[in-house]
Structures are given as structure tokens and as C-alpha cells.
Amino acid sequence: MSLRPFRDIHRKKTKVINVGDVKIGGDNPISVQSMTNTLTTDIKATIKQINDIQEEGADLVRVSCPDEESSLALKEITKNVSVPIIADIHFHYKRAIEAAENGAKCLRINPGNIGDKSKIHDVLSAAKNNDCSIRIGVNAGSLEKDILEKYKEPCPEALVESAQRNIKILEDQGFFNFKISVKSSDVFLSMAAYRQLSKVTDYPLHLGITEAGSFISGSIKSSIGLGSLLMDGIGDTIRISLSDDPVKEIKIGNEILKSLNLRNRGVKIISCPSCARQAFQVIDTVKKLEEKLSHIKTPITLSIIGCVVNGPGEAAMTDIGITGGGKGNNMLYLSGIQSKKVLSQDIISKVVSEVEKKAAELDKKLK
User: Fold this and answer.
1) I need a surface site. Which of 206, 251, 270, 341 has the fewest CB within 10 A?
2) 8 Å CB contact between 84 and 21
3) Which CATH superfamily is domain 17-259 in?
4) Domain 267-366 annotated CATH 3.40.640.10
5) What are the tens digits of pLDDT across the range 299-318?
């Protein structure tokens, strides 16, 4: 239960590509991805981290392949995970071929950095033969020397020219199953580059603010940059780059999409910051509910408001709501309607029970 969004976001209609069984672009859901930070050669640790990332809600996971041992390790890794794997490749074309042949469903490369046309041809042949897509990954920190000399410094025009150059390399080889990114650690540079690129290509765009920083600063930078682009209808897949646990990248990515009503997954909690009017400990309650409801994948809205100032109004717009009342008698709302009073000490168990019941009902309807 929710109100119609104040503003509908009209996504740009891009071409559709396949990354394994995940479709990117067009009307398909915006996908969320992250990247492992384990040694790829530590197969057991890498598989565990991929599964943890997927459990949090990732649609795709990227794995770095800096050497032959890493790209060959993909064979065992991909056998033991169900999410499509993107191989992160830099410079060495043989790593790309090995990754494609060992189960990767996408190669993150800069074709212009791979080498001469024969090497690019070999990489694209391996990709075609193994149903493997490509992401052209342009980065402000690794632009081609001649482009950097032309523009003197990284700028939107430089990133877009690099992207267009690499697009032409793939198209000239008859390869079209690819997406593009033009990342920078600077929010404004990234936003301007993506906006310019979106005007000159219909290929799906992978959004990201690269090297965004720690959990708090990186989440804020990414929310501003990616959120602004997504509101403009730009973007088909996203990654939040944090110096932190990759699982947190997925959590932030999904929260950005939920905030924009672009994709709903799990419980969306609306809660007040708390004040002297609160009838129960809102902050502690929300923290415990986030943990206890993390297993719910069904989209459900939940309001946790400490008093009657905004509580009834918020509860009227959510599937389940709790509004603080006097003497520990708080009101439970179901589908916007008052249901029963709940003692403060019973809020968490009652809310968890109602959310799980609601999720089961919705899941049953979908089957």
C-alpha cells in the first residue's frame, strides 16, 4: 500500500543486452551490482562473498582477474554460484579470453587498451562463442594518452570521446552486446559525462561514482550522483563503490532505487528521528526491525512513528504502521486502518509477525 509517486520517472529507452540470464536496458529493472574484494585465487572465500552479496540483493557480481590463475579460477567459482559473474580485465587480452571461456557472463574492459585489432578480434570471438557480454569501462583516471593530451585534463567531453571510440571498435567488429560506463570520483564530472553520453548513444549505461570513499561519504556521494541521473531517466545498472564490505554496496544501491520508486525489494521503513514526544524508543526499535526483517524480499512498506503528530498520517500510507500512544499503548495499523493497541515491549515481535504474514499473503497472490 502506497501513494502514487509525486513524480514519475521516465527512463530513457535503451537497447537490451544480456548478462547471463539478467537483461539490462529497455524496460527491464535497473540492476544492482557489487565487486568482490577477496583474492580471486582464494576460491572458497570468493564464492562465500559472492553468495553473501547475492543474498543482500545483487543481480550481478564483478570479480577481478589480474592474472591467469585468477581467470582460470572462475571455472570453479561460476559452478558454485547462481548470479552472473562479470570479469574485471585490464590490458591483457588473454585474461579476457580465459574469463569468457571459464564462465564469466560479462567482461569489463577498455577495448582500446587491449592492443591491436587481432587481439580485440580474439577477445570478441571468445565473448560471442561463450555468450558473454562486455562493459566498456571508461574512467577519468585512466583515459587514453592522446585524449588526455587533447583535453589537458579529465572532463566530460574527454570521457565521452573515449566511450565513443571504444563503441566504434566493438561495432566495427560486429559486436553489440555491451553496456558503457564513464566513471569519475568527482560527482559533477560523472554526472555531466553520463548526461552527454546518454544523448549520443542508446546502449545501456552502467552508473557509478568510482572510488567514492568510505561508507558514509561514499554513500552520500553516490546517492547524489546516481540519484540525480536516475531521476533524469538515465541508467540501467548501478554500482555503489565503497571502501567497505561489498554487501553494504548492495544495501545502499537498493535503498537508492527504493527511494526513487524505481525498484522495490524488501521492507521499506518510514521512521521518525524521535524526540521528547516519543512513546517508545524509536531508534532502537528501527535498528532491531531492520535486522529481524532483513530476510523479507517481498516489497512491503512499514511506518514506525513515535507519536500521534505524524503517525496516523504515515500509517495511512503504508502496509503496516505503528504510532506511539500514551502510557505505552501504541496503535497498530494494517493497510492504513487502526487494528489494535500494542504495548511498547511487544512492538518488535508484533510487527515482525505482521510483516511476515503480509509477505506470505503477497507471495501467494503472485504465484
Assistant:
1) 341
2) yes
3) Dihydropteroate synthase-like (3.20.20.20)
4) no
5) 999 999 999 999 999 999 99
